[in-house]
Amino acid sequence: MRRTAMLLVLLSIVTALSCSEQVSTNGNGNPLLAEFDTPFGVPPFDRIETEHYMPAFEQGMKEHQKEIMDIASNSDDPTFENTVEAMDRSGGLLAQTSNIFFGLNSARTDEKMQAIAREVAPMLSEHRDNIMLNEELFGRIKSVYQNRDRFELDQEQSKLLEEYYKDFVRGGADLNEKKKERLREINKELSGLTVQFGENVLKEVNRYELIIEDSEDLAGLPENVIETAAEEAAGRDYDGKWVFTLSKPSMLPFLQYSERRDLREQIYKAYLHKGDNDDDLDNKGIINRIVNLRLEKAKVLGYPTHADFVLEERMAEKPANVHELLNELWEPALQKAKEEAAMMQEMIDDEGGDFELQGWDWWYYAEKIRKKKYALDEEMLKPYFKLDNVMKGAFDVANKLYGITIEERSDLPKYHEDVRTFEVRESDGSHIGIFYTDYFPRESKRGGAWMGNYREQYYIGGREVSPVVVNVGNFSKPTGSKPSLLSWDNVLTLFHEFGHGLHGLLTDCHYRKLSGTNVATDFVELPSQIMENWAEEPEVIKMFAKHYQTGETIPDELIEKIEKSSKFNQGFALTEYLAASILDMHWHSITEKKDFDVNSFEKKVLDDIGLIPEIASRYRSTYFRHIFAGGYSAGYYSYIWSEVLDADAFEAFKEKSLFDSRTASSFRNNILSRGGTEDPMVLYKRFRGSEPEIEPLLRSRGLI
Q1: I want to staple 457 with a disulfide (CB 3.0 to 4.6 A). Which of 95, 200, 467, 644 is the partner?
Q2: Is residue 678 part of a domain?
Q3: Quick check: is 252 in a domain?
Q4: What is the SS3 string spanning 574-604?
């Protein structure tokens, strides 16, 4: 979904780990324990079985622990090379196994994979704590840090040292033994709770079915939506029926077009109650435990709240700065949303409806107003947005900006038949990396869209190790009569995730810990969100918008309608997003542990800011995976923080030309290639020449 795609945090509980080139060479039949004899060393997905993971995790932790002990017990004086750099090169097998396992557990999971995730999460947490709380190792890191002026470090080395030192301090290295032991217990429990939260949400989505038996109940639905629902039903052995699910490609078209208001209400309420049904998949108790444990951990480490702990490492720096931004946007966004709601109620009244607008009506009447006011029907656009063409359009933009080429390959192993594989090259033909795409929904995949790494870029022994990157989405699958056709929102999502992909592919860093998307959460969305700007430019739209049947380029009048309607419903979009961001900040700004009534807490937060009842928070607490099962706790605001950056950054291109080579080169060299090697605002100002202004964002959202 646009602007809510979550960057996959593959190593969220092993953030101290790094890659080395060395892994065990005797695999004993386990491909994870042998060198990958595949093109470019990509994972041998076709040979990896579920039973291979746990032995690889166990061996990886064993090898990594030995490497750490060798560093900690080194009798030589601590130096950058024998301590910091050595640590960054350690843990190769464990990081490799973690990348593959956690990537597939999100994209192609099953009960056995989930059982491994539950088992290995506390093991990894304990392993990480054994590193972070190792006094001898921290003593060496601290010695190098305190004597850093003696080592003549370059910028990247200095940043790596700084990050490791902060990791140890924030990981509890300076605590007394009693507090260290409590920190271990907290981390171990949190690792299991976050896994369970995510599993519950996925199971909730998979078990819901809106089964339609009478064709009259399909009134208003477009032909392709009906065809997809029929194929979904057939796949579930409901021949002759139609099935709609809680996956966005199924649910949203139903909410947009179905004339059956009662059925819209049914699926809408089912969506809102994920994880909130007082049953075995209920997440309220898990939320209580997570927020209280996070608060306790923050206080053990010397911070008043979890938000204070998290934001110390972000561009925002402290909660007050986040609240200031959210509050600055909230009132104009809410006012715009109220105006939109009034328009919809007016339409309801004009049509003779005797009811007040509700949440399950919003998508339906927004679509009707779009048709009436802008003469634009989402179904008018989809024939021009064939998935293959949109992908090529994104690739062509990257070529025009950075000179790179992206060519499909058929010789690389894949983990699912829907996956496609590409090689990315520089303009001179030299290899950059491998890019996977996985765009269709299935029960084994979590919802949403994201980018991940199966291998990050870094250097070892003077040789570059190239990245292996994946984009995952949940777009409508091809049917028997039509290819995959995207909505406009899907188009923006594809460009968004491809922007993350470029960040991971075009990085040029020596150390994996600083490479690619390993940057502050409120900076990481800049490369993704700026790509959406190109998708909205008429020149670019014409590059990829070709009718799937006739090959006709999208007519100018349709592009004009897209432009004119682009700011329509932005009140809704921004308000639901800001509500979720504010909810996140409140959950992680609690100062005292207590037994929370989750729904009452959420209701009070949203009532206090005046959220209108026709709009729900983009994520309710019980299925807010970003903050309770991902890496965005006290960080969901990051999308709008980065949107300030991306709107301002795109102005740099607009001031010259859409594909200005010097501006593109500066963006690549100062943003995409630099990873986390410097402070993000320093990098941004080096590209833009000054700190960002908020006005471009307000204009792009139609708020001024």
Answers
A1: 467
A2: no
A3: yes
A4: HHHHHHHHHHHHHHCCCCCCCCCCHHHHHHH
